Amino acid sequence: MASFSSENMEHKIQQVRSIIMQKYESNNELYHEKDIEYLQNDNWTVERYIQRGKTVDKSFQLLDNVLKFRREIDMPVLESVCFPRELFKIGYAFNGGHDRQGNGVVFMRPRFYRKIKKLDRKIKQFVCYQMEIMDKKTKGRGMAIIVDLKSIGLMNLDIEYILWGITNLIDCCPTGLNYIMLYDFSWLVTSIWNQMKKLLPADLEKNIIDPHHVPDECLTLIDYGRQNDWLEKEIDHVLKLWKPFLDKADEEIKKFVQ
């Protein structure tokens, strides 16, 4: 991490912030007003990109890209009610506790992923939402992503989705995201990992947390689908895909509460 004097850092923060504001004033549709408001009032929102980018130009570009990405996926307005209950229950992505270094941990379990066109954007938003929760809890100063690769098969692999995650999610937490851990490799995952590992941080850690918390306010997938004008056969298709995962979640929940 780069080291700056407090005076130098303050100057860089003001420079980067000024450039962002100029961009916002000329193309405000590219940014979300909530992000801009937060950026104006919180120095760490800017400083964390300077810690990574080092120069004003590079830091601005990093922050600008992230702000546009957040606007694209509606990150500032996402909340638990935006997602069907089953997405939480399956435990595809969830917030855990903290590792031994104090990093907040976000877990991902790709064995519960299926490429579902109707839910593609929603699943991406869900992953971002889980990271956003932990980033706020830790105030952007210490987070880890642990990816459990157990039981991965061809039906779980989606190269476009993997590349999307690498190029977008890591940049959303430039200094707050301290490491990503991938574990329980199969031969199938190893062949893909060998092509992509240069894009990921190298440090490794792990922690184990129960994944099945479901917010009370979330709709079921049936209600969510009907509210969003899905056809009944589309709802049934997703429920059929998710049924083995939900059954397994029920089994794990029973063991957890005993």
TrEMBL record:
This is Motile sperm domain-containing protein 2. Pfam families: CRAL_TRIO. PANTHER family: MOTILE SPERM DOMAIN-CONTAINING PROTEIN 2. Residues 93-208 form the CRAL-TRIO domain.
